[in-house]
Amino acid sequence: MYNKIFLSSDHGGFKLKEIVKGYLIKSFIDCEDLGCNSLEPVDYPDYAKLLSEKLKNNDKFKGVLFCGTGIGISMAANRFSHIRAALCTSVEMASKSRKHNNANVLVLGGRILDDKLALEIVKEFLHTEFEAGRHSLRVDKI
Asked: What structural domains and CATH numbers belong to the chain?
């Protein structure tokens, strides 16, 4: 498990972020909400950058990003060299993103996923470890 989970979203992911935050709090998982704080339009690159700054030089922290589809905010996050953001739409994708790619940021689409599936994806991501071994060589090339 991780020391802290940072959450960040634009307006398109705001509702799902709030649901995931509620789950994390109820599960006694330390989390910090970096915004946004309403449905008012904001720019997703700003919120990807906020989260990336929190993860810089700290392997004990993980993040979850949200936007409408997850596409834009994952692109914005992955421009930072220390971020390995994985846009996941299934539990299997969340599992593989951790086991094989050592993803440190999960990305979810608030307008794409239903709440139940999103929570299952979050649980899998947070409870799956990196397998290392042969996968380390590939991740190191990133």
From this structure: 4-141 (3.40.1400.10)
Residue pLDDT tens, the chain, 142 long: 568 999 999 999 999 999 999 999 999 999 999 999 999 999 999 999 999 999 998 888 999 999 999 999 999 999 999 999 999 999 999 999 999 989 999 999 999 999 999 999 999 999 998 766 666 667 666 7
Buried b (16+ CB within 10 A) or exposed e, 43-58: ebeebbbbbbeebeee
User: What are the catalytic residues?
Assistant: 100
What is the phi/psi pair of residue 100, to 5°? Answer: -100, -30
What is the reported pTM?
A: 0.94
Residues 6+ apart with CB under 8 A from 85: 48, 63, 65, 73, 74, 77, 78, 103, 104, 105, 106, 107
The structure tokens listed for 121 are: 């994806």
Beta bridge partners of 64: 7, 106
